[in-house]
Structures are given as C-alpha cells and as structure tokens.
TrEMBL record:
Keywords noted in UniProt: Decarboxylase, Lyase, Purine metabolism
Pfam families: OHCU_decarbox
Domain Oxo-4-hydroxy-4-carboxy-5-ureidoimidazoline decarboxylase intervals: 35-184
Biological processes per GO annotation: allantoin metabolic process; purine nucleobase metabolic process; urate catabolic process
Enzyme Commission identifier(s): 4.1.1.97
Source superkingdom: Bacteria
EC category name: lyase
Catalytic activity from the UniProt record: 5-hydroxy-2-oxo-4-ureido-2,5-dihydro-1H-imidazole-5-carboxylate + H(+) = (S)-allantoin + CO2
Lineage start: Bacteria, Pseudomonadati, Pseudomonadota, Alphaproteobacteria, Acetobacterales
Name of the protein in its database record: 2-oxo-4-hydroxy-4-carboxy-5-ureidoimidazoline decarboxylase
GO molecular function annotations of the record: 2-oxo-4-hydroxy-4-carboxy-5-ureidoimidazoline decarboxylase activity
InterPro entries reported for this sequence: OHCU_decarboxylase, OHCU_decarboxylase-1, OHCU_decarboxylase_sf
Length: 203
C-alpha cells in the first residue's frame, strides 16, 4: 500500500494530467464501474495502457478505490516509476524514439514511401539531418534509452533545442522527463478506454 500512498490516490487529481476534461457525472459513473471491476477484468482493461507493463495494472488494482479517472492513471504511472530499473528501461525502450522518427524522415524513405514525419523532420537539410543523427546517437549512448518526445505540435528547431538541453541532464532527471513523455503517449489509449467504458456504462 505504500506505493498507493505515493501515487496520491487518496485525493482527486488536479487538472493538468493530460486527459480531457469531462462531465463530472460521467467521470464519477465510470470511476464507480472501475472500482467495482474484478481483478481479471481490471488487468485486461488497463494492462496495456503502458507498453511492456501489464504488471502495473496488477499492482494498481490493490490501490482501489480510485478517487477519479486521473487518480487511476497517476497510480498506474506510479507503479511503473517505482519498478526496478531494468523494468523501467523496458517500458521506455518500448516507445518510438527520435531514431524512429528520423528513419521515417530520411531522404531515402521519403522517396520510397512518400511518408511525412512529425515536427517537420522530413524537411531537414542533409546537414541538419546528420546533426540530428549525431546528437541522437550521443543521447542513446549517454542514457541507454531512446530520446522520447511526443512530437505533435513541435517543430524541428524545437526538437533540436530540447535534444541539446536534455543531453545535459543527469540520468535521474532525464528518466523523469522521458516518463512524462510516456504519459503523453499513453493518453490516447487511456482516453479510448474511458470512452468505451462510458459508452458501456451509459447503456
């Protein structure tokens, strides 16, 4: 239960968790349904919120009842953040890092598939592309994990600035930032689960 207390599950989560604002009655209705779930249903529902971490849902189940939906997500994240280092790294490495975005943005890939990359990375000059590759390699070597950034809404210049800044962080600080980005990656999946539960609960 210590991990449950560390997650702050006793109190409702403040705004700013990344989840959409919802009708309070709907939120309360879904929260009651979640708190009433059997263990197997809870794990099946939330075990895939964070990649490579079904155990987070297993542990979070013991923290019921949840104050609200945001408290549930905060609890799941707390379980991941409180896991042993190797387990945490498996989660971080399961998400697409900058190398994945650069692969999509490479001149060869653009010619073959005509795909576009987020943050304007497919508009880089050869020199800029090489600089990104070099800095990303340095990041991977320093932190032993991919450079994670939810790129939507960013620009190539903004990504470059963040990459340069984050390269100077201590590992503990950078891991915390990486998990913040993981939370943003997980938001759409979490939102989809909420909408499914809200629809089912409203029938």
């Amino acid at each position: 239960m210590d991990a449950c207390r560390m997650s702050g599950n006793e109190q409702a989560r403040p705004a700013g968790t990344g989840l959409k604002r919802r009708d309070i009655c709907m939120d309360e209705s879904v929260t009651r349904a979640i708190n009433a779930m059997k263990r197997s249903e809870f794990i099946a529902t939330f075990g895939s919120v964070f990649r490579e971490a079904p155990w987070a849902a297993e542990e979070a189940y013991e923290c019921r009842p949840f104050a609200d939906i945001s408290a549930l997500k905060s609890t799941l994240m707390a379980m991941v953040r409180g896991a042993p280092q190797e387990a945490r790294l498996r989660v971080l490495r399961a998400y697409p890092g900058l190398e994945t975005l650069l692969a999509v943005a490479s001149p060869r890939e653009r010619i073959i598939s005509g795909t576009t990359a987020p943050a304007g990375l497919d508009q880089l000059s050869p020199e800029e592309f090489a600089q990104f590759r070099s800095l990303n390699k340095s990041y991977n070597e320093r932190f032993d994990m991919p450079f994670l950034l939810y790129a939507e809404g960013n620009t190539a210049a903004g990504v470059m600035k963040l990459l340069e800044q984050r390269l100077r962080h201590e590992p503990e600080v950078e891991e915390a930032i990486a998990f913040r980005e993981v939370g943003r990656f997980a938001d759409p999946a979490f939102e989809a689960i909420f909408q499914k539960l809200a629809t089912r609960n409203g029938d």
